[in-house]
Specification:
Number of helices: 3
Largest sheet: 4 strands, mixed
Strand content: 25-35%
Structural class: alpha+beta
Order of helices and strands: HEEHEEEEEEH
CATH class of one domain: Alpha Beta
Radius of gyration: 17 Å
Shape: globular
CATH superfamily of one domain: Phosphoribosyl-AMP cyclohydrolase
CATH topology of one domain: Ubiquitin-like (UB roll)
Helix content: 10-25%
Strand order of the largest sheet: 2-1-6-5
CATH architecture of one domain: Roll
Length: 152
């Protein structure tokens, strides 16, 4: 199966925002931002990006695929760690330039390469006029050194 997407530049504003055609608006780098949340809890697990290939693979397989900007390659979530994401629902925003991916997180339940459930395990606070990070106490569900080697 080969999935294709409608061309957003060929659509009116009304068609893009109210129509039934899925026309993701990829940025200049060919990417769309994806917020991944856990089905049932609605916890935000991670923020990532997809190119057209990752988006098509995600839809075709029901398993989350992303584009790794740091490694410049396609990335099947959980391929190394076993922490795959089974897609429950894929949503797009009104102008189709962002995606919310609702998933069942498999494995030990860790979406983050640090071994935590969520990549959002720190909060920003002010201390003596400076912005600092504070750990929220989200525990590690696996040791990244054991899964990825010395450096994830």
């Amino acid at each position: 199966m080969s999935i294709s997407f409608a061309d957003p530049t060929a659509m009116t504003h009304q068609q893009l925002e109210e129509g039934a055609a899925f026309a993701p608006r990829f940025d200049a780098a060919g990417l769309v931002t994806v917020v991944t949340i856990e089905a049932g809890t609605n916890d935000v697990l991670m923020l990532a990006h997809m190119n057209a290939q990752a988006l098509a693979l995600t839809l075709e397989t029901g398993v989350a695929h992303y584009w790794s900007r740091s490694r410049a390659k396609l990335w099947k979530k959980g391929e190394t760690s076993g922490e795959t994401q089974q897609v429950v629902e894929l949503r797009t925003d009104c102008d189709q330039d962002a995606i919310v991916l609702v998933v069942n997180q498999t494995g030990r339940g860790a979406a983050c390469h640090t071994g935590r459930k969520s990549c959002f395990y720190r909060r920003v606070a002010l201390a003596d006029g400076a912005a600092v990070l504070q750990d929220t106490g989200l525990p590690r569900l696996f040791d990244p050194a054991n899964v990825y080697g010395a450096k994830p």
